[in-house]
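Field guide to reading this record: the first block holds the primary sequence, the second block holds the structure written as discrete tokens, and the final block holds curator observations. Each block starts with its own label. This record concerns Phytanoyl-CoA dioxygenase, catalogued under organism Methyloceanibacter stevinii.

BLOCK 1 — SEQUENCE
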Amino acid sequence: MSHHITRAVTQDEIAAYKQAGVVLLKGILSLESVNSLRRSIDLTVNKLDDSPSGYDFTKVLKATAANDVDQLRAMSDGQYDLEAIMDYVKSTGKPLLADEDSEARQGAYFIDTGVAARLDSYRQLCTHGALPEIAGELLQSGTVRFFGDQVFVKEPNTPGKTAFHQDATYFEIEGEQCCVMWVPADPVTLETGAMMYVRGSHRDGTLYKPNVFISQAPLPGSEGVDLPDIENNLDDYDIVHFDVEPGDVLVHHYRTIHGTGGNQSRYQVRRAASIRYCGDDIRFKERPWAPAQLHHTGRLNTGDPLSGTDFPVVWERAPSDAVAASAAPGAALGQLAGSQAA
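BLOCK 2 — STRUCTURE
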């Protein structure tokens, strides 16, 4: 299956990505790519119990609230020791995050990591065609390497929020040229859990402590600046969100702070993939607290360029394009029109 880009990335979109740290690329994926993504996500959810990195966060929230140690222990044989993490979260006094009236809503919040390593059709989407080409244009890099992926599903009536966070300190890398693509398989609005971004939060280089996604509590042993309480002070920040449709792609810099609410819709599921790419300047950086990547086959040392089968080159700039890119003038900020204050 081929995954061709449906239109070129514009200079205004490149400028918006650089300045705001996030850009919406409307209608840039083909229907073929969207349908492939939907099939991949549905298959991933159906096989979630077979994945060492797959979790139903709604079950985690419920087990923690009920102090169901046996259930947490049963879910702790994969990527995370959930029993230990939830004990730690309780010790911090930080609440678990959920929308209001969560008791009345029972939808599930699924997440899985490293799906591309197990599912060939999904890996094809991640490593060939449109998405790597988009990364090459936005990163302005000579080469692009695939860095990783996650799949997120929030069913209708799912109260679980995703805490505001910064991807950079979950990733064992350093440098500037890393982008994260949020690719929806369904229409997404604020009601169903649209992504919210703190515009320009990538620019000063601050690295914030990573949290446990369903709470503001930082990961045990993590380093960085404490992230402020954005959830309860949205008006104090320059927050933008975008209503998106299948075929759209949201792309943010890996230091851009972002988060989401639950899915308050009664009927609309919210399926999406987070796919990550790195450019030439990225180097490996060991972070002992970073979530284990159980699908990786090797290990790099701090300072090493990305290499090997875990981080394949998925796009290379033609020599003539490289000359043109270096000579291209700056463009006015665009593509932020139509974004809405959250």
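BLOCK 3 — OBSERVATIONS
Residues 11-290+312-336 form a domain with the Jelly Rolls fold (CATH 2.60.120.620).
Residues 31-46 form the longest helix (16 residues).
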